[in-house]
Amino acid sequence: MIRADVDHGVAELIRDPDRPQSWTLLLDGTAQSHVDLDDPEHLEFEYVRRIAHVADLAADAGQPVRALHLGGGAWTLARYLAATRPGSTQLVVEMDAALVELVAHRLPGPGPDDGLDIRAGEARATLDELPAGAYDLVVLDAFSGARTPAQVTTAEFLAGVRRVLAPGGTYVANLADGDPFPFLPGQIATAAAIFTHLAIVASPEVLRGRRFGNVVLAGRGPAPGPLPIPALTRRAAADPFPARVLDDDRTRALAGDAAVVTDRTASPSPKPPAGFWGQ
Asked: What angle do CA 93, 165, 75 make, to 5 degrees?
């Protein structure tokens, strides 16, 4: 195990006993990322696999994409895209500069020669600096501890995401919630106010309120072209961790009468129960 103080806590890198070049990154005891240095296409965490299903369908197979990752961890999905879509250009934004240095030193991977740029900075502030229409794919997987920060949960934030997306680009976010769902309905209502097409990929147990867990929310539009729901459904069903896919109508129905979240009303995602994410 490797343990180091970083800017926002204590990071630990724990080697996977079953995969010698695989490591799990924990921050203050919360599992943040898992990477296999020998096989970047191996995705250990269920929610990362579901984000990857959306990313796989963001463009034709193998076609390079321009991807923005808001939240870095150990750059799991960026490594995956570099392997599955050679020639892609990617920017990973991670607020913890010391964590960026630790990952770069201990878990070396793709770099500028492979189209991957790592930037230390806050996701919202960095987003405001980026040019319009610059990305085909924007991935939000930003956490402060085990909670999604309030500033990346709002309509103003998503308007910024939509600004940097190219026409037909895809947004995908990792969210976490559980019964009685104090967070997810507002996030759906907010995304519905910004994007024309929505989808959710999640475990049926989470959607039924039987346990706290990750929910992957995808958005596209207002440019024409819905999300590829049939293909996404097939991938999610065939995964070793099968998931349910909700189309636009069923996703919007989950919002109920929730209000759109704004910078004035935002709060972080709920704190997960003890034991979740390695706590």
From this structure: 25
